Amino acid sequence: MRVIDLLNADKLRRLRLSSPHQLYGNSTILACVVLLSTVIINSCSSNDQSINNTPNRSSINLSQGTMDEYLISDGDIINVIENTQTIESCTSAIEENPDDFKAYYGRGYIYYTKGDFNSAIDDFTRAVEINPDFEDAFSARGCAYNKMGEYELALADLNKAIEINSNKCMFYFNRGGIFHEWGDFDLAIADYNMALEICPDYVKAFVGLGAAYWDKGDFEHAKEYCTTAISLSPDSILAYYTRGLAYHSLGDFNTAIGDYTSSINFGADFAKVFNNRGRAYMSIGDFRSAIPDFEKALEIEPSMESAARSLEHAREQIQE
Questions:
Q1: What is the pLDDT of residue 319?
Q2: Residue range 115-140: average pLDDT?
Q3: How many CB atoms lie within 10 A of CB 38?
Q4: pLDDT computed for residue 158 by the predictor
Q5: Residues 42/306, Cβ–Cβ less than 8 Å
Q6: What percentage of the chain exceeds 90 in pLDDT?
Q7: CA 171 from chain center: how many Å?
Q8: Distance CA 172, CA 191 (A)
Q9: Which of 304, 270, 299, 297 is nearest to 29 (CA)?
């Protein structure tokens, strides 16, 4: 079984109490527009020495590191961020005006990008205390809570952001990401679709749909939504990668290799894209092409056991 059934309420309760790294592994792509990770069982577990060439995607994040695009949506706030680019300058603005909620928001954003999520949460909290209708700060704090594994609090903040302003597609996308991470793919799909009702060309929502349908095992729909994303954004790293997963799962290994390669050519540098392309090469018997992909995956993520076993197997096949 590849995909863990997390829709049962008791399992969902346990998920909320578990370590995100235990459930998902370490993501190689930085998070939030909310982290969208696939909850799967690795096809080669630590006790399984066999080689399985099916796609392996224990964690995927659809933001591709573009946190600023999603936390900052108000033009005035963008100006604040651009004009106060350091923690020190934001702090000076706060000292001059302790009720400057935009400065708290700006400093919180900077803390977030530095990985100081506790400080980010403190500043976003101060921003909403000063301005209780500041929906972007609720959304941003939800992203920070999500990074801390506080999924209940993250969901509450996204719900609040939507309550204040139900016309921002990113809020539905972020909430869909939380549902996606919980394994409730149907609720995630509903929110991604709601985002598209507001923003019909919202590329990341199409990629989110592709990822959610892939997790559900509906590879045809996954392929279709990612194709739409690519038509709107021809250099979308994660659209190509996720469509590659769909083709791979459908047994179309050559097309999967093409999509993985496009993702890499556009800048994908996470271990799983190389590992999965290597597996696709192995599926067509091209062990020589597979070897450098497994080597690259291990260079990026030395602890990836499945890549190490696949590399050993590919080398053995060449020597025979």
A1: 87
A2: 96
A3: 24
A4: 96
A5: yes
A6: 68
A7: 15
A8: 5
A9: 270
Half-sphere exposure of 20 (CA within 13 A, CB side): 19
Residue type, 151: Y
pTM for this model (two decimals): 0.76
Is the CATH number 1.25.40.10 carried by domain 9-233? yes
Domain residue limits, the chain: 9-233
pLDDT for the residue 219: 97
Three-class SS of residue 130?
A: helix
Please report, in angstroms and rounded to a whole number, the separation of the first and last CA atoms in the chain: 32
Tell me the helix, strand and coil percentages in the chain, rounded to 5: 70, 0, 30
Question: In 3-state terms, what secondary structure has residue 40?
Answer: strand
Distance (Å, rounded) from C-alpha 220 to C-alpha 223? 5
Contact (CB, 8 A) for 119 and 127: no
**Residue 250, pLDDT score:** 97
Task: Pull the structure tokens for residue 261.
Answer: 């390669």
pLDDT value of residue 182: 87
Nearest CA among 133, 124, 189 for reference residue 161? 133
